[in-house]
Amino acid sequence: MPRCRRVCTAGRLSIRRSSPERRPGSPPPLPPSPTARASRPLAVVRVTTRCRVDLAGGTLDIWPIGLLHAEAATVNVAIDLPVRVALARRASGWTVRQGGETIEASRAEALLDRPRTALVGLVAAEHGLAGGELELESGSPAGAGLGASSALTVALLAAFEMAETGHLQRTSGHRAAVARDLEARLMGLPTGRQDHFPAQLGGALALEHRPGEERVRRLAVDLDALGERLLVAFTGQSHFSAGNNWQVIRRRLEGDREVIARLDRIRDAARRTPAALEASDWPAVGAAMESDWEARQGLAPEIPTPAIERLLAAARAAGAWGGKACGAGGGGCIAVLAPPSARAAIEARWRELGAALLDARPTVSGLETADA
């Protein structure tokens, strides 16, 4: 019997509204309007979002960098590493459980004083809930560069929306904008937009950075075939993306010619990636990832690390078409594209080098909600 394959179908989405059309293989559409249903607060809400692998065009999603490079885009794919939030409302006081740790606070503002709960405190303050019990879970290692923190932000926002009214109030684009702004407030640095869309929409996406909006285009990609060729490993070293990104942003806004040229090369790699993905031209996708990484390494001295370079070199020697650090680099994960016949050799070599292999299969699943 032939193997069934998941194909993420093409389409164009505007972040200003939710498309009512449901395409085969696409995640369920989000509610188009916060007033579409009657309000019915829920006692317990469960939300799941997904992490992502950025294939090309990272950093260009940080405003205003993408606008300074004509036709800039970022290409990524959701992977089946889930981020889960369970929220139970209560009259007052907060309990947050994450990674075996339990933190109690009398008010949402008190959560802001602890690094592990500051994001929860921001979202709770944004929504004005008096109290609740939260359980947070992530399938990604901390600081992996897979967008888990942003997936958590949109999951928290969705959970609070559901708890208040019984349904999702924001569109995916509005939720992405709120998440970005809360993250910027939390870190005191500019943040990007690419992570919030695969977390909610699933599949392979091209985010086109246009004046006035991010245009999200769903790519028609054979996700099973991509998954057979995509390998992801954690270097063991967490990274802090905002710090690396800020160096790049500052130098770009100051007119550093080398940074401008390197961002142009990253833009060019991202422009080649959607067509290669949709044509299942995997060597070309790998080459685009490699081009992105070659340009990215010179953006800041902290981006390449010895661990990243060892793992990428080992993958190339074993037959990989190309690869890159995930996210802002400086640690975290790497992703490579390689023929299925080379997979075992790459994985064996990575284990010898001390890397942790992740089961990062592409998925059409995005934001999912349930109440109990």
Characterise this structure.
- The protein is α+β, with helices and mostly antiparallel strands and 372 residues long.
- The chain contains eleven helices and 15 strands.
- Strands 2, 3, 4, 5, 6, 7, 8, 9 and 15 form a nine-stranded mixed beta sheet that branches. It has a four-stranded antiparallel beta sheet with strand order 12-13-11-14.
- Strand 8 and strand 9 form a beta hairpin.
- The radius of gyration is 20 Å and the shape is globular.
- The chain starts with 6 loop residues before the first strand and ends with a strand.
CATH topology of the largest domain: Ribosomal Protein S5, domain 2
Largest sheet: 9 strands, mixed
How many β-strands, per DSSP? 15
The value of Rg in angstroms is 20 Å
Spell the H/E element sequence.
Answer: EEEEEEHHEHHHEEEHEHHHHEEHEE
Distance between the termini: 39 Å
> Structural class of the helices, strands and pairings?
alpha+beta
The low-confidence parts are: 1-5, 7-38
CATH class of the largest domain: Alpha Beta
Helix and strand arrangement:
Blueprint: E1 7-8, E2 11-14, E3 44-56, E4 73-89, E5 93-98, E6 101-105, H1 108-111, H2 118-127, E7 131-138, H3 148-165, H4 172-187, H5 196-201, E8 204-210, E9 213-218, E10 221-222, H6 223-229, E11 230-234, H7 241-253, H8 257-278, H9 282-296, H10 306-317, E12 322-325, E13 333-337, H11 343-352, E14 356-358, E15 368-371
Parallel strand pairs: 5-7
Antiparallel strand pairs: 1-10, 2-9, 3-4, 3-15, 4-7, 4-8, 5-6, 8-9, 11-13, 11-14, 12-13
Helix pairs in contact: 2-3, 3-4, 8-9
